[in-house]
Amino acid sequence: MLLEMPCHWAQGQDLATFQYESVVVLSHSNSFAMVQLIIKIDGSDLDSAVIKTQQMELRVLDIKADAMRFEVKDIYGESFNFVPRFFKLIYEDGSIIAAKKEQTTIPLLPKEVLAAKVTFEADFRFKQGMRVELHYGLSILAEITVE
Predict the structure, then answer these.
(1) For the chain, which domains are there?
(2) What are the CA-CA distances from residue 112 to residues 33, 60, 71, 82 (Å)?
(3) Digit-coded pLDDT (tens) for 78-93
(4) In b/e form, how buried is each residue of 86-99, taking b as 16+ CB within 10 angstroms?
């Protein structure tokens, strides 16, 4: 799936060079260019990727500047709490973008499916060829690759 992502762009900068060489910083800034990137989760296209754990299945519905929306589905058959603040992204260079702590825990009933938004403390930054780990608590959920 191609995602158009806003990114910082200095006026007068050659956009072709910018797309190839620059880190794409998702931002709420007014000075941005639209760059198309292919985001994959564990090698699957974003729109078909399913992340499975012992308790739940997650599908990424969309990625914004500092947030991800998931479809969360119980697969274990028991109620549990979905805790957005447990998410974090760990980049190849060791830097971490954690989810904001003040997010509300969402109770999920058996066999229930819901949409949940996870907001992070900083804007995401992506560039072609990058690998990022998506963590939930102490577990690695998936590897996100950018093409």
Answers:
(1) 40-146 (2.60.40.1240)
(2) 39, 17, 10, 12
(3) 999 999 999 999 999 9
(4) bbbbbbeeeeebeb
pLDDT, one tens digit per residue, over 99-146 is 999 999 999 999 899 999 999 999 888 888 899 999 999 999 999 998
Q: Which of 128, 136, 52 is nearest to 88 (CA)?
A: 136
Ramachandran bin of 118, using left for φ above 0, alpha for ψ from -120 to 50, beta for the remaining angles = beta
Picking from 87, 127, 79, the residue whose alpha carbon sits closest to that of residue 103 is: 87
Q: Name the pTM for this structure.
A: 0.76
Q: The tokens of 90 are what? A: 């760990």
